[in-house]
């Protein structure tokens, strides 16, 4: 199992834990040399310390969260990152994961107070489904979690918490959320009116701030952006740090129009972004916003990148050990041969004459090609080729377009889908308020 699998796991779960940093040996040596307290070099302990006993990190309404619980929750987050994090960043991550553990405990306790019980069988079934989605047996998943410093028990605890919270929201919140047919019809009319305009698939992280802690929150947001640029999992950081309602789904805002952002400043920022771009932190009312543009398309319009293509790939290999002049002559002969092509039917004959290889690829979706080639291919007519690309080491190739089936115009979300979207948004906002109330009423002790 690799980091990509861990990232998928974080779609349902959060991160588990790794042990804290080792003590500073140099600092220890200096302290022993000074020995200001006059302590013996080898003190005789009157009781054997038990390494298996951990002091509680927090006690939430009587439930103990230990250091081991925290360590195991941090481990998956660290393993999902593609880059090393500093000791300072590690401490910040641990503090956030502890807050998540506290919230999870409050959610489970609130569900139990409403006599909502999540059975072990339900948790095991979900755990098995997560393993299956990652092409793993349950035993392999358990072994992997132990390998990265976590455990199946810790992961199952979070699964139990999420299942309990979802069921509690359905019982206490969703039941009271109503969306009228008029609201849905009005939304559908607005979508139709905006047909052809751009919409954006955004991921977000929101950090709230007050005038008193504004500088600290901004610094924290900047560190998150730095980690994301170095390869950290956006979904994992959104789940652990974001205070937006989208935190539970890794910050995924799904497809939205600029008008739905409700802020001219944000509309201006997003409208200028390119797919794959990360921007932030941006100052907005109440805090800071980090945004990642996953993709862009036009509302109620077919996306050309969904076109199915029939391509012929023509490639010629070189001998890296041959003289430069020889390889240059071979390349010139290849490009000259390409100019003489008379459509896809002549490719095989030309390739045989030049010693090139031909690979036919049918039913290739344009968006599956490298981004640099997508628009080039989409601008071609049948029988035309891309410019040559590659190198002496990897070979030089071209792609010829031999067929194209354009996608049908999308009809957009139907009435039921729009109603579900509006309901989900309102339930998420109500869930945030509900959790704030649970925090305000909780008895929490820290060690």
TrEMBL record:
Which part of the chain is the PpiC domain? 197-295
**Molecular function via GO:** peptidyl-prolyl cis-trans isomerase activity
Q: Which PROSITE patterns match?
A: PPIC_PPIASE_2
Signal sequence, renumbered to the chain: 1-27
Task: Name the domain of life.
Answer: Bacteria
Q: What does the UniProt keyword field contain?
A: Chaperone, Isomerase, Periplasm, Rotamase, Signal
Annotated InterPro entries: OMP_Chaperone_SurA, PPIase_dom_sf, PPIase_PpiC, SurA_N, Trigger_fact/SurA_dom_sf
Record SUPFAM superfamilies: FKBP-like (SSF54534), Triger factor/SurA peptide-binding domain-like (SSF109998)
The protein's name: Parvulin-like PPIase
Give the species.
Qipengyuania vulgaris
